[in-house]
């Protein structure tokens, strides 16, 4: 049976491990059909457009090589590096957690707020929202301005709650997206604190990719 | 454990049976946490705004009565009757298959085409797309113009393929939504024929509702 | 001669009396062609989506029964409950004071501010603005947060002036809509205080409905 | 009592006579409060942007001179020449029949079609629709391509029906605007033939201006 | 060889002199193909819509008389008075510095801020942005609120820096337009102070007009 | 003096030679300040998203190495590969001919048509139009569907005229962009045949970059 290739498009093994833990935890029955990849030559984190562009090339190469064995691909970075190039290469479904998380949020409301790791990511993210046709959903994006490796810890938790609360109260968001693959573990806690649905991009992308793997007609 | 209440907001038991078959087929492990309801006093089908308005009131009543036992609600009609009223009543998640299917389609592309049962539904649908903030995604909606009870049969199959092909070739759709709960069984076949991802609203809504049931912080 | 049916879609007779006073005051020559209805089984006020959905069903029933005698219908509630269902039932014109008041405001400027009774109405109103295609006109909506039965009194006057001033100065509104049928009596005073055109939905809807009654080709 | 100044911003007396007949016919009780002006130095018709610009200057001069005696102004040309300049000059309401007719159409539907006299007017009109913030309402504009002085006759009638039918069937319009002050007499007949509400700009503008004259707080 | 007619559509000779100095300084090789005109009968400055409308008529007259000798026209006022009328008159290119400066800014970013001379200009400018189809680019416009004849001096410099900084920091602008022909001399200094590209409308319009003069196929 | 680095982000030397000929022909006085680069490791042409992503990385590397010597950079490919990454690297201006050509077109009109080399480029282009905030300007894009190396020859000329005519007559374009760096030589001829302003992206980008090189405050 063909596998779901879940690709962390940076070179950080701990990030891949976090993604694996999230994915296996959410869909344990599918665990043995999941393959996880770390792109060894990619930047350690995707924090600017240059990183995203480099990851895009490596991701496309990975998809090209894995295509024969894969039933679906999931790009596990909120910036979706290589999404459209990968779709040119394979006839299997390719899902990006960024596009998928915006889509998932749209099921809960029409005013979406995004928590970013860094203020420097915001303009890049908005270009992506525009490119996928969902710019008008996003009523605000605010940054916690912590390093990527802090994105799952205690300091991060407090900052994410603070930022998500501002998105709710100042920007009128009715659903929140955690704009980084590394914040997955915080989802339930943020949701409980802020009182709005909170979308974890890894979970959102995984749901779409798993559905495609098991139900798609493989167009 | 709280249940997922899946509500067919019309009074047609065969439609409920179809929804049940689809839902149980997609998520068998969750079958014993699903409760299916048919709204006995509702119209036999939701084919105009008056039907949708009547169904909305009955759906809200159902949600009010079932709230103590439900962990999530799924409104299994593409027009999402009663969606916003139900959200006022319960603190559990309420998902509409119409909003959820537009959202699901957005994970695959930014040009969405919708297959309608009847041309008379199209203006009503577009008002709903606008209300949920996703009007700009929909590049076209075309109708098969068959009766609701024909929406799963052979004639319907040929018409849906014809209409979906027109959405792809004339309107430039890159993803198709089957705009009726009764077309679920056709999804894979249409996807295979047309070569685009095809979203079944029941499946799309079920995925969101199931995720909320099992993972949400119950905000 | 056929009549103009002016329907208060809640069960509050004082609200109907206010609407009658406004309508007869504005168009005395047409007074004997006006019929006023109160929907006895409807909620006492339309303050949430559930109320609006219930009123919609009753309004459609009223239109069905009155259709033979009516030359035009006016739905006298800013949320326009039952507007589209009524248009399915009758070939006579059906005007909603919500849609009509947005339209009237558009004759004065492209930046419209709305005074709401309650903050809880705002999201519901915005869904309606989107559905009628005029979402982009509304630059702000702010609530006085008083009970419906206070909406015409002294406390209300001061709050409406305060809120309308904020719409003018903070949101840049160049025309104001009083977002409730019960504020009609305040219109001239607010207009004088705030220095912007102020639209009363009852007056706006009445003007359209009366024009249709007397001039339409009854399409 | 102050008067309603209805200004035909071209130099054609027959056009002014038509406007007067329409206005007095619609609001006979207000006839003695109406003053009609023809701008003697203006072009004979407003058929291009240059004409509109020249009329704008003359209209502003007229408003400046008449301001002491006027309670409201109505600019009786679909291009609304001088609308914004006039609003700078006087504190009395200034209504343009172009802006007012778009606004009136918005009370009936969110898909508006416009019948133009000439294809050369269409780009100019669309600039005006954008400037007043209602561009997104207009789903199509089609021209009868007849001379201005033919705009009320038999040939015009057949052409207007043909063009309005195309707006309905090809562009999906649900309400029609007659995009010229000279087509007023055709309104009811077109409405009857095409089966959609048809807005006459003179009537639409007159309704707004009369309401302002009699009810406004004279902000 | 045909000339580039650069028209200052107000009657202020010092403004024309400033425009001439800017234009000759930017394109000295083209200096002997430039003709500068001051519209003697126009207002001394274009500070409201009435001024702009009057200038529009005089500008169109100038274009009509100069057409035989001109290879291109440049309207050197940010409000582009007479732009569309002039394009009806001549087959030579007609460029407005307002439209051209918005276009130039779009080469640097999608979030444009405009420095206005006066707050009273802002609504008029936004109508023009909408009419040229670029409304969505402008994230903010703020005024220095000085007289036109102060627009190039020391007081102006400090105010422009203050206002441009607010456009950058509060409105998120990534490119600034100096919304008046009289601020040309300040461009480099503002750019250096604010750290964003700053567009001078005269330079932007001149670049387009010069390109058209020398390279266009004279359509 | 710092140079203008004009980068052909593919590995085809003949394309670079064409770009050089165009650039030197347009701005001969600046010829000795122009440096031309071909990215040897890049694809031979940018015909899909994968090519564009690979070119983006190489372009960013080039900018990093050349930054000390460059006063401005011009990316000479309509897809603007590496545009945003390059802007992260250097404080010198970076101009993309794609963004610049859309911007240039906006100086002539608000309805832009694009001639593409291949139908497969169109979806990718539209994502870029959205990302730069100018999606709403483009009323149509149509492809000549010839190979890149045919894009300047006789067959191409006839096809470009055919396609540009369709953009004018069917899509209502009032300005045309040649959506490929290789069509530069055809510009004047297409403009003459079609009777609309025609924008060559190389010329448009060069104009912006040269202006930045010589006049910018080097922010």
Average residue-wise pLDDT of chain A: 93
Please compute the radius of gyration of chain A using only Cα atoms. Answer: 16 Å
CATH class of the largest domain in chain A: Alpha Beta
Task: Tell me the quaternary state.
Answer: homohexamer
CATH architecture of the largest domain in chain A: 3-Layer(aba) Sandwich
Distance between the termini of chain A: 17 Å
Task: Please give the domain count of chain A.
Answer: 2
Unreliable runs of chain A, pLDDT <50, ≥5 residues? none
Instruction: Going across the biggest sheet of chain A, name each strand in turn.
Output: 2-1-3-4
GO molecular function (chains A, B, C, D, E, F): amino-acid racemase activity
Pfam families (chains A, B, C, D, E, F): Asp_Glu_race (PF01177)
Family (chains A, B, C, D, E, F): Belongs to the HyuE racemase family.
Protein name (chains A, B, C, D, E, F): Asp/Glu racemase
Layout of SSEs?
Six copies of one chain form a homohexamer.
Chain A: E1 3-8, H1 13-26, E2 34-38, H2 49-66, E3 70-75, H3 83-89, E4 94-96, H4 97-106, E5 112-116, H5 122-131, E6 138-143, H6 154-169, E7 175-178, H7 187-194, E8 198-199, H8 201-215
Parallel strand pairs in A: 1-2, 1-3, 3-4, 5-6, 5-7, 7-8
Helix pairs in contact in A: 2-3, 4-8, 6-7
Please tell me about this protein's structure:
The structure is a homohexamer of 219-residue chains. The first copy, chain A, has 219 residues and is of the alpha/beta class. Chain A folds into 2 domains: 3-96 and 203-215, Rossmann fold, CATH 3.40.50; 99-200, Rossmann fold, CATH 3.40.50. Helices cover 45% and strands 17% of the residues of chain A. In chain A, the strands form 2 sheets. A 4-stranded parallel sheet of chain A has the order 2-1-3-4, with helices on both faces. The first copy, chain A, has a 4-stranded parallel sheet with strand order 6-5-7-8, sandwiched between helices. In chain A, strand 7, helix 7 (187-194) and strand 8 (198-199) form a beta-alpha-beta unit. The first copy, chain A, is globular, with a radius of gyration of 16 Å. Chain A starts with a strand and ends with a helix. The model of chain A has no long low-confidence stretch (mean pLDDT 93). Chain A binds chain B through residues 26, 29, 93, 95, 99-100, 102-111, 131-134, 136-137, 187-189, 191-192, 194-198, 203, 207-208, 211-212, 215-217, 219, and chain B through 26, 29, 93, 95, 99-100, 102-111, 132-134, 136-137, 187-189, 191-192, 194-198, 203, 207-208, 211-212, 215-217, 219.
């Amino acid at each position: 049976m063909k596998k779901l290739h879940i690709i962390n498009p940076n070179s950080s093994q701990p990030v891949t491990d976090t993604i694996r833990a999230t994915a296996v935890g959410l869909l344990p029955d599918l665990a043995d059909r999941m393959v996880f990849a770390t792109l060894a030559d990619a930047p350690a984190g995707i924090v600017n457009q240059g990183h995203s562009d480099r990851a895009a090339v490596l991701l496309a190469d990975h998809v090209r090589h894995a295509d024969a064995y894969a039933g679906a691909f999931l790009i596990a970075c909120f910036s979706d590096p290589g999404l459209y190039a990968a779709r040119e290469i394979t006839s299997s479904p390719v899902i990006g957690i960024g596009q998928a998380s915006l889509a998932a949020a749209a099921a809960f409301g029409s005013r979406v707020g995004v928590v970013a790791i860094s203020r420097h990511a915001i303009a890049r993210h908005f270009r992506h929202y525009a490119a996928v046709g969902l710019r008008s959903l996003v009523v605000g994006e605010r940054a916690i301005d912590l390093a990527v490796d802090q994105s799952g810890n205690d300091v991060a938790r407090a900052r994410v709650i603070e930022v998500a609360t501002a998105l709710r109260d100042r920007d009128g968001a009715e659903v929140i997206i955690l704009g980084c693959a590394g914040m997955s573990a915080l989802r339930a806690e943020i949701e409980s604190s802020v009182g709005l649905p909170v979308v974890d991009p890894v979970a959102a992308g995984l749901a779409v990719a798993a559905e495609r793997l098991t139900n798609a007609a493989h167009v």
